[in-house]
Amino acid sequence: MPTDVVFLLVPKLHLLDLAGPAQVFATANDFGYGYRLSYVAEVEEIVTAQGVPVKAQLEWPDLGPDDLIVVPGWRSPRLSPVPPIGPETKQRLRSHHAGGGTVASVCSGADALGAAGLLDGRRYTTHHDLTDELAARYPNGTIVRDVLYVVDDRVITSAGIASGIDLALHLVAIERGAEAAARVAREMVVYARRNGDELQESVMLRHRGHLSDLAHRVQDVIDARYAQRLPLTELAAEIGVSERTLTRIFTNATGLTPLRYQQLLRLERAEHLIGHGATVESAARAVGFEDPRMLRRLRSRATEPVAG
Known about the structure:
This protein has about 300 residues and is α/β, with parallel strands linked by helices.
């Protein structure tokens, strides 16, 4: 029997919060893995945050314990004063979970699960811009910050936007196997299926909020060649400034030396490989460490400054 996946649509939903997971399950179904998608709402037409109207059905399909309800997020960065779902919809969510079914959310969709009481006593996450608000609104649960998704007793919450794809691929892997999820990811040209505990913001994004054109150019070089040896002399010559000027401007802009930035990129990529089954030794080689002991040291003191 196919698995029913019901998307609960609310006004001003984000298109990618809906389209990302929907594409995963639709592609899985194209491969014969057995998913049946439907879209329900409290009104027949939903206008998305991007202005595209979406038609929905008012009647819910009959759902069993093997089926899934997904609540995509709606316009952020702040939560609406009250979740945009009514009492009957809240009861639908509660009843489905109580009957053994799974409920999932993308981004601010976690607010709907919280309104239904499904976050109480559970760990959950959301988009990093909303964590403080959601934690205050649902203090009987435990917010998990800066991860892609959290699974707790058939309640699955994700960070939002693109992380909905990671959540859906995870569910395909659990229900249909890792090979099925890999086939879907490849068909969707997804670079890698990320684990739930990976950070919402990569090192590349976290240190890009500055306005220094020179520092951005240096980061472009390091991002592209982080697994290679990049002596400061070579880096400075490529950018066309002195080593002293490069170090000063880069550190002022990012809070890191070029070496520390490169090490963080290597560490992040190595953690990803290890999380997907690689040994420390093979991960160290893949990211450019000649000696795996360096990777072990960086992992053991990941929050400490590295001499260099």
